[in-house]
Amino acid sequence: MSDREMLQTIIQKVGQKIPTVEWNKQGEIISFRCDYGSLGQIPREIGYLRSLQLLSFSGQKLQEVPSWIGGLSQLQILNLSQNELCSLPKAFNLLEQLQDVYLQKNHFEEFPEVLCTLPRLENIDIGNNHLRSLPPSLRLLKELVTFYINNNPLHRLPPEIGSLRKLTSFNSMKTSLEVLPPEIGALAFLDEINLAHNALSSLPPEFWKLTRLASLSLSFNRLLEVPAEIGNLQALEVLSLEGNQLQSLPAEIGSLQKLEVLYLADNKLRSLPREIGNLPILSELDLENNELEEFPLEIGKLVELEVFILDGNPLKDPPPSIVRKRWPTNIRYLQEKYQRSLKERS
C-alpha cells in the first residue's frame, strides 16, 4: 500500500482532525502532524510510513507509545508533548536518527533512560513532568545541545551534567534546586541558562567559568550576594537577578560591556556601585521594590537606557514627582544631573 493510500486510512481513524503532511519527490510522507484532539493512541498505520522524518501527536491524550515506533528508522523529530505518557518502550533505542524529542507536559516520574542510548540526540524537552532525579547514564548524551528539564521536583542535578560538553541552552527553572554541582562549570559552550525559581543561596566557584553565557537567569532564588567573578562573564547580554536577597552589587558588574538588560527588582539593594555607569549599551534596568534612597551620579552615563523602573524604593533623589513620571523623565533627570556634575568639576 502506498503512503497516499495509507494516509486515507489514517484520516478515517483520526476523524475530523485532518493531519498536516509533507511529501518527498518520491511520493512518500516525510512529515506528519496531528496535534490537539482526543485520539488516545497513535494509529498503527503510522508505523508503515517508513520515510517519516517528523512525527507530531501533541495534545492527543496518549497514554503509551507503541513499540512499533522503533521501525521508523528515518525519524529525526518526535513531538509527543502534552499527553499522559509515563514511559517509553525499549524499542525507542532503534530510532538512531532521532535528533529532537519533545516530551514536556506528560506524566513521567522517571527520566526515560532509553533516550540515553540515542547517539544523535541533540534536543530534549522533558519539562513540566514529575521527574525526581536524572540518571548517571545522562553522560552518554554527548551530542546534546539543548536540555529543558524545567518544572520538575528534581532537588539536585547529578555530576554527570558536566558530561554534556556540547550543551548551549539549559533550562532548569522551578526544579527545587538548593545547590549546583561543581561539574556544571565544564559546560564551556553554554550560552543560555535558566535557573530561576529555585532555592539557590550560592553558586559554586566553577559556575563563573561559563564565559560564553549570553543569558543568565537566577531570578527568585535565595542569593545573598553576587561575587566579583560575575565580571568573568564578558559575553552576558541579559542578566536576571530579581527576587533574591541582594543588598549590594560588586563593582565588577560594570565590566559587562555587552549587557543590554539587567533585572534587579524585588531585592534589598541599598546602593549601586558607581561602575554601573560603565555599561555602554544597557537599555533596560529594573530596580523596582528595593531599598534605594539615591543613585551614584554615574548612572547618568547610561545614554542607551530605554526602560528604567524605580517604583517601590524610598528614594530621596530623584524626588517622587520624577519617579512617578517614569521613563523617560526619570532617566533624563539623572542624565542631566550627571552632566551638571561634570560642568561643576571642570
UniProtKB/TrEMBL annotation:
One GO term describing the cellular component = cytoplasm
All copies of the Disease resistance R13L4/SHOC-2-like LRR domain together span: 216-308
Origin organism is: Tengunoibacter tsumagoiensis
Q: State the SUPFAM superfamilies in the record.
A: L domain-like (SSF52058)
Q: Does the keyword Ligase belong to this entry?
A: no
Q: Which domain of life is it from?
A: Bacteria
Q: Which InterPro entries does this UniProt record tie to the protein?
A: Leu-rich_rpt, Leu-rich_rpt_typical-subtyp, LRR_dom_sf, LRR_domain-containing, LRR_R13L4/SHOC2-like
Q: Which UniProt keywords apply?
A: Leucine-rich repeat, Repeat
**UniProt protein name:** Disease resistance R13L4/SHOC-2-like LRR domain-containing protein
